[in-house]
Every structure is written in structure tokens, then in C-alpha cells.
Write a structure and sequence with these properties.
Blueprint (H helix, E strand, L loop, with lengths): L3 E3 L7 E3 L7 H11 L9 H4 L5 H15 L3 H10 L8 E4 L2 E4 L2 H6 L1
Antiparallel strand pairs: 1-2, 3-4
């Protein structure tokens, strides 16, 4: 999910995620030091650490960090440095596109 996007459920509403670039560890330290405590997640799926893809991916990134310096930064850069002429397919505005579309336009 992007740090700022238009809501698909409500017209004229934008979703802004101001903590997008803040490391989770920094947020945890801040709430511990400030005495501000977040609400517990009522969602049973999110609360369960085993079998949850979010925690599985966090563990994967952590293990990659053992072998590769600044792996988080590399992941963010990979999402920013996309050269569309080298991508096989993508979705934009709910429509699927293929690199082959470029050749259909030439005919």
C-alpha cells in the first residue's frame, strides 16, 4: 500500500500513512517512552503470530538482514526504481497490462 492514496470505498477521501518510512522498532520505543499505548488489535488473525503472513515476512526480512546490509532500504528502493520497459506485466487503475500491449499498438 502506498503512503498516500485515494480511497476506493469513499469518494473524495485520501488515505495518508504518515509513519510509512518509520521503522517499527522506533515506533515501539516511542510509545514505551511516551506512555501512550496503542489499542490491542481485535482481529484474531493479526494477533496470532504463527501462521500469519505478516510475521512470516518480518522473519524473512530479518533473516535476509543477517546476510545483506540495509536489506529494508534495498526493498524500498526496488519499489521506487521500476523501469516499466523491463516489466512483463502490471496492473493500473484496475486494468491489467502486458509488455505485449506495446507491440499491439505498433500494428
Amino acid at each position: 500500500m502506498l503512503p498516500k492514496l485515494n480511497s476506493t470505498n469513499f469518494d473524495g477521501i485520501q488515505i495518508i500513512r504518515p509513519l510509512y518510512y518509520i521503522r517499527e522498532e522506533s515506533i515501539i520505543k516511542f510509545i514505551q517512552n511516551s506512555g501512550i499505548w496503542p489499542l490491542n488489535c481485535a482481529c484474531m488473525v493479526a494477533a496470532k503470530k504463527t501462521g500469519n503472513k505478516r510475521y512470516e515476512i518480518k522473519d524473512l526480512i530479518k533473516s535476509l538482514g543477517d546476510n545483506f546490509q540495509e536489506v529494508e532500504k534495498s526493498i524500498f528502493r526496488a519499489a521506487q526504481n521500476v523501469y516499466l520497459d523491463s516489466v512483463l506485466g502490471w496492473e493500473q487503475d484496475g486494468k491489467r497490462h502486458s509488455f505485449l500491449d506495446k507491440f499491439e499498438d505498433e500494428e
